[in-house]
Amino acid sequence: MNDRAEQFDSATKTDSSSANWNRPSFSDEEMRLLSHTEKTSFVADYGLPVVNFVKEHPVTAISTVAGLAVAWRFIARHAEKTLASAAEATASNSELRAAAGLERSFLKELSGGNLIASKAKEAYASDLLQLATLPKSSVGLADETIASFAERQLRSRAAITGEQISSESIAREAGRLTKINTTVFSETARSGEMNLGGRSLTTMSRDSFAKLAQEMQSRHIPPIEQFLKATGRIGDEQICAGLQMQQSFARGSAPKLEEVLIEKGLASNPDVDLALSSRAELKSVLKSLREKLLTIEDAHASKLKPNYNP
């Protein structure tokens, strides 16, 4: 007989080591719930607590939603205004201007004309485009007066405009800046001694741009002798002779070169008339070129004005 003691449940007399031990009795629904291992749904995990919170605290829930709506509206409007300001501030960037086709549209005006006119138009157009990229405003440096501010503005653009730096030109520039910055300079203020450190001043208004562009034109009109030689019937020999004769007169009383050439028989009236008409035509072409750029600048400036309504 095996000495191993039998293991059994005294109540059921069933061998506890057997697979046929009695298990607790569960219904099918209870077994399904016990064996359910799927993740709970989003609605069950998050939706129901929110719904219950709204039911229990309706005033708090409504106030929270209203506050979030106001905050979102404020952020959206602020972002819109910031973007509009940023777009306006960066629109003068030369790369953006080129991408917008402003320069391409303007440079279409350069085609055609004789060699003298073509070179003059190209040079004038280049200077005009550089003038258009100059900053429209500037901030005064520490302890800077209107005179020193004006001199700094002149030096920054002299290479483009050809302006000379002198006490007279500085005084004129200071007067111009004072006139277009009436909010900074009051009638009673002694503008020459005012400290401009940290103050923002307009440096290039539309009228200032137009006036400078007009004054720059004379730099790109070649002297009459170039137009005379372009006729093909007046050479360097006649031009040099005419210039020498012109220098023999006292300063201020010398006749024009073309008049000397005609008087001395070095050029005919038709040749001089042709040269003068070519020079006048170039002046007209450069004027049209300047007006074309002003029209483009005006149209560009109107597009940059933000439509934001606070």
What would you say this structure looks like, in words?
- This protein is mainly alpha-helical and 310 residues long.
- Among the domains are: 45 residues; 84 residues, no CATH class; 57 residues, no CATH class.
- Helix content is 61%, strand content 3%.
- The chain has 13 helices and four strands.
- The strands form two sheets. The protein has a two-stranded antiparallel ribbon with strand order 1-2. It has a two-stranded antiparallel ribbon with strand order 3-4.
- Strand 1 and strand 2 form a beta hairpin.
- Helix 10 packs across helix 13.
- The relative contact order is 0.09.
- The N terminus is likely disordered.
Query: Which structural category fits the helices and strands?
Result: mainly alpha
Enumerate the strands of the largest sheet in spatial order, edge to edge or round the barrel.
Answer: 1-2
Net shape: elongated
Q: Could you give the count of β-strands?
A: 4
Major beta sheet summary: 2 strands, antiparallel
Q: In percent, how helical is the residue content?
A: 55-70%
Mean pLDDT: 74
| First-last Cα distance | 103 Å
